## 1
Amino acid sequence: MMNPNSPEAPKSSVSDHASRITHHATPSSSINTPHSTLDTPHSPLTRYLGIYSALWKNSVTREMIFKSNFLLWIVVELLWFGLQLSFIGVLYLHTDHIGSWTKWQVVMLIGASSFIQQLYQAFFLINCTNLSELVRTGKLDFLLLLPVNTRFVVSLRQVDLGAFVNATFALATMAYALHMAHVTGEISALPNLLQIFGFFVLCIVGIVIHYSLMFLLASISFWTVRAQGIVWGYYNLFNIARMPDEAFRGAFKAIFTFAIPMLLVSNVPARVLVKPATSLKWSLLLLGMSVLCFAVSEWGWRASLRRYTSASS
């Protein structure tokens, strides 16, 4: 398979390539991308932003076609979020602390975990789960021929717009939990602007970890063809991230802190807001894990592409 970034790659018009990206994202719909955006020479950043903008427009069109499905999944996710909060409410009828985490601190943690999960779902989940279908059906052949980074196209072809609505509800829950924690004396002061900024930065770092690990698992489809079960299995582990890390001990805590850093991804950003005195070392660990996970994911992706022989072989 020819590398699209090599000098020998075919030099067809960029606008044709953009339309082919859209065609393979949703075969039933098409979009009109401004000719000047993709044909006029631009910096790589501007070019990729133009392509991603076209993919966003395609996602909006798809969601508007299936409005009922769009609204239904928002309701389902909100109901599930409500059940998690109810579980914590019942749990704290019988105890005052889980480790050093009080009731409203844990509610804030659940909100942070849901916020990270919903943003990850919005940008990456459907694309990671669809990688095995691209391999099985041969559609990956066409994406490999595009004069853009293949991982960029595979990772960002579709956007789940409903997840942004649920992420907003998660943020509102966090704000209310922080207010109640301050009122009840569980935290001495509300977070300042630096803490809030740090929280959002660490959320992005956590999303990078989730994306890297799930994309690495999705790359197994080059060997097994179908890998959705493995990818969805990882997604179900998100439930672990909603609990305080102090609730776990021994090998379980070590595995889900260092090998599969579920506990780090949500607990560290939450600590920045409610336990800032203990957050620095954990923040550095989270940053280090994100770099490591992305590097391993990129290595796995390149190794998988070298093995790929196309659907026609």
## 2
Amino acid sequence: MRNWLVASLVVVIAAVAALTLLRGADQPSSLPRTPDGHPNLNGIWQVLNTASWDIQDHQAQLGVPAGQGVVEGNELPYQPWALAKKLENFTNRGTADQVETKGFLPGVPRVMYMPLPFQIAQTPKYIGIVSEYSRATRIVYTDGSKHPEGHIDFWMGDSRGHWEGDTLVVDAIHFNDETWFDKAGNFHSEALHLVERFTLSGPDHINYEVTVEDPKVFTRPWKMSMPLYRRKEPNVRLLEYEAGMLLQVEEAKRQTPSTRNLRTTE
């Protein structure tokens, strides 16, 4: 009797293990897909990290939550002059970060990990990415077209994508040198070249990787990676955060005497 129970248990365990393996093998085909067969990236997504403040490990400060880095190895291979520039940026970050002080576009890849959601709209010929931050927009062309010739100073660069299996691979160039990777002063030049990889790992998660190359600033390419999470709230949508307009409103408030001050001077 005991041997029969043991044998039965072994059969059940083997069956469960086989079923698990089969489900794992079938997982890619179970991903949501568009009519053309590619993984469906449509939706509203957002990171759950602190990379916008600092892409490397960092301690908490007033207004800055502590966070674990998203850089592979946690080190950025700056050239000596560039490391000095980064430290200068960090010292002057309160006024030098134009995203914070002027409401300028954040650039790429920073727009992908700001603490605000973004929406992906996927078609066979292009993929649109719109951020809640100032409606910063990217168009990733997947129609086989090439980058424009020459160098063009775009805030958000020029993005051309293709599919490698179930991974969207995006090549991005044509940047200006006005944006940073984060609020901590990590920066790049106009020679920035990015290769991004978007891999849908399940219905509600995208594995996002980006390889950064900039021979004017860094000694070698380096990589960041992080998950993107689908926003699941009922009726979720992008709202408005027009940074430039909000900064102008605050500036107008500072320059307009308050009612209390006017009464004091009468």
## 3
Amino acid sequence: MPDAEGADTRTRSPAHAALGFLALSVLAAATAASAAAQTTAAPTFHIVATTSDLASLARSVAGDLAQVDGIVPPGADPEAFEPRPSDLAKLKGASVIVRVGLGYDHWLDRLLSMHGDASVNRGGTGYVDASVAIPLLEVKGRTLDPANQDGHAHGLANPHYWLDPGNAELITGGIAEAMIRVDSPTTRKVIANRAEFLDRLKVRLAQWEGRLRPHRGAPLLAYHNTWPYFARRFRLDIVDVIESKEGVSPSPARLAKLAGLIRERRIRVILHEPFAPEEASLLLARRTGATVLKLAPSVGSLPDAADYVSLLDYNVAALARALSPAPD
């Protein structure tokens, strides 16, 4: 008879041993698969973009291959941004750096000089100026000297080119090329991510164009010169801007002239940025009956503009509503 501990010490049958080995094998395989999945999901890249718009587009290309960080906080005015010492730390370990260019984020040159990594500086494998190949508007015939920058954010041309969704193909193409240069084994995944995003964007673009098609040629007034690319894409007419010189409030004489223009052209909507001073726009609205409409110039500048696609979703829907005839 077995002793008191016989139930614990007696020899198990071959069938029991086989079942135990199988259970251990299954557990080991599951653990290995979990570890492999975690390794696969670990980001290969660290991408830093100067703005929330470029960061959102970079995430669309990178997917789970990269950690993507922005420098200008969402909701802040990028044209009034001044980097802090803590922003230099954001560049640490960056494989790819993406900028708007055209003088818009001229402060990045100082950070890159202090950072000292040639691979993400001008000409480096991980450096992306997203304005390259963009069909620019309001081009100025001068060069930009990063060491002698006057701080004006529209240095070489109008820099708000991301607000034309058609330009997303060129922007994401530059980001994808840099990622592939830095780490060629990711080529297939990067290309697939970008293609999936562009397919989705193509569908949305057709919807956006359909939503604004009834309002083609509609005259608009803008507070700041943010919207020419958006207007070109959707065939809108930005008649004038309130802020004729950046950061300078309009004079009473200019406001009187703009009020006359609104009446003459029957302008119904004044486009306004969330972080711009409201006094002039509201004054013109009271004098003329026009509507002040806040649109999102960048990702995160309004709550409904959480990423690149929702930014355009919001702007198109809000503008279409504002331009539609009032219900009887």
